[in-house]
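User: Study the shape:
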Amino acid sequence: MTGPHLSRFQGHGIEFDEVRLYQPGDEIRNMDWRVTARTGKPHTKLFREERERPAMVLVDFRPAMFFATRGALKAVIAAECAALLAWSVLHQGDRVGCMILDDDGSGTAAAIRPARGKRTVMRMLGQLACHRSWEHRPAPCQESLMRVLQRSAAAAPTGSLMIMVSDGRGLDAASELMMARLLTHHTILFVLVFDPFEKAMADVGHLYASDGQQQCSIDTGRESTRSEHAIRFRERREALTRLQSHRGFILIECATDDDPFTVLKSRIGGRR
């Protein structure tokens, strides 16, 4: 059960941690006699066990992810990013699990607990490829990310790498605070998937959009409409940027007309 990542738990491993004063119950065989002789007080050595680090991949399949004006749907890009990262985690010897955030915001697809082996990744890919949202577009929802963050916190063991692939919708103040709390026990890699239209709306006259049930018209010629549209995306991006000030938070941006492999390789190709 050894791996390349140090455990937060101290035990009988091969990695030396520190020397401290002897306490009743410490293993006599780990006494540091040199420090004891030098200081005149009994000291013992502490070690850390090496364990594999679990990784939990959270993939956003809510209604807004099934949108794009160029390239591929955001959901397609998210699935590709999740697959690439899952194989990368498995390749470096860690355990990988998965949870899908869907239309009701609670991740109804069964969560896959972090485990070793290709079978776990293939099971994750099966859930992504066969998810019901590909055939039946769910009704729009305005769901905070808080529920999925709470559920993921319960599913991910302490010290996990949490990989979130999402467009960031629902990242309100409460969700931002919850994510900051998660960073005290986990590392978070957030892949922000977006369509260029979300980032900047061009003046192309009237556009018609539909969610499969209702249709609306958008006058892109109005400056106020373009400004309000840009502000919504900027608020999500700024919230993620603020989280970058916390240790253990990594942000990667991937547009729908980008190649996920190229984007991920350029950012984390040499990172362990």
Remarks:
- The chain has eight helices and ten strands.
- The first strand starts at residue 5 and ends at 21.
